[in-house]
Amino acid sequence: MSAPFDDYEAALEWLVGHYNLERQLGRPDVAVPTLDRMTALMGILGDPQASVPTVHLTGTNGKGSTSRIIVDVMAALGLAAGSYRSPHITRVNDRIAVANEPLDDLDFTTALAEIATVESLVEAMVGQRPNYFEVLSAAAFNWFAATGVDVNVIEVGLGGRWDATNVIDAEVAVITNIDADHLEIIGPTLADVAREKAGIIGPDSHVICGETDPALVDVIRRETCREIWLAGADFGVVQDRLAVGGRVVELFTPYGRHEEVFLPAHGAHQARNLAVAVAAVEAFFGRPLDGDVLAAGLERLSLPARFEIVGRQPLVIVDGAHNPAGARALADTLFVDFVPAAVDEQRCVLVVGCSGPHDPLGFLEAIDVDRFDLVVATGAAWPRSLPAADIEVAAQGLGAVVEVAGTVAEAVDAGIRFAGEAGTVVVTGSLYVASEARVHLQQ
């Protein structure tokens, strides 16, 4: 059998022809969760996901930052780490990467072609062809196995138990945290969310649990595992202070302490993500991580769309926060840690667009919308984008001054004009908004 395409553009066209759950969340036609298609596809490919040891990550927030830290530390140890994450920030290639470098167009086309040649066999076995996320997950696992990476670092797309990535028997299973998000699918309670995310834990997994709520930790601990390390008890942050260009952190794990670690990232939440990442690497190897290796890994670190500074004069910050927990972390970083004096004395603009089924009111409350001098409401070119008018109404109800812009690019430009050279512009609400803003500003 041969693939139905032979170039990158044709491969993308073939890919988007598949059912895409990311576009359908919150709609009544969301498919019933099942691993049948993914299990069949992996079997046809020879179960490539079983040939590479894996760190598997889930959690409401922090997966992207934590996984990127893990990959860079693995690189400092001399290991090539394959990573799979979603959604993509700039291009779909971003989802499949080695050493945090996305596959180029030729390799990405080849990876998809391997799946395209066998998808009809899956349809014959289970009566349905793989969906968009399953195709990409399978392409990642197959590519990593074929190219001989040393370790996989795999992010869950949604939940955990029924996620397409959960065909893994992970050596290390990471749960960054549990908060309110996608409750209509994996809720309705936080205990339900915890139960779904704990579904990535296998009997041979070493679990790294970043959640600290005792009731939710109790749900996670009900899953059979090899060992579990708990944040605050077995690992965590001892000290965390601001520094030029990031933070200086002291961590502890069961293997000892890491002192004076420079983390080139903004926000106290990133120190917690670092603690989870270090614990995950040490659990994977079963030994302490050398301080020089950790420092070398963090020197490589880049966190696109995570309080990413993409412009100066005015200061322009892009952040992919999309739920109230992410909005609170962003607000704390901006108003408490980062530039409190400048924000209070100069014009501060919020450019915001949200995706359904998220509630814009909860997001705007969490981000302290009344502290911004202007809110520019907009929406990404994305099927689930909420109408800018809905965001406008919610923000006005919280006392904000609001403008509406038809596109993210127009919203960013309006925010920059209002802020002036001395002001601050924060672009947030979803990774899709962050993506469009980054592309516009880079151009």
Arithmetic mean of pLDDT:
94
Terminus-to-terminus distance: 41 Å
Number of strands: 17
**What is the architecture of the largest domain at the second tier of CATH?**
3-Layer(aba) Sandwich
Biggest sheet descriptor = 8 strands, mixed
> CATH H level of the largest domain: which superfamily?
Mur-like, catalytic domain
* CATH topology type of the largest domain: UDP-N-acetylmuramoyl-L-alanine:D-glutamate ligase
Strand order of the largest sheet: 4-3-2-5-1-6-7-8
The fraction of residues in strands falls at: 15-25%
Number of helices: 18
Can you tell me the overall shape? globular
Radius of gyration: 21 Å
**Assembly level:** single chain
Number of domains: 2
Classified by CATH, the class of the largest domain is Alpha Beta
Low-confidence stretches: none
Judged by helices, strands and strand pairing, the structural class is alpha/beta
Share of residues in helices: 40-55%
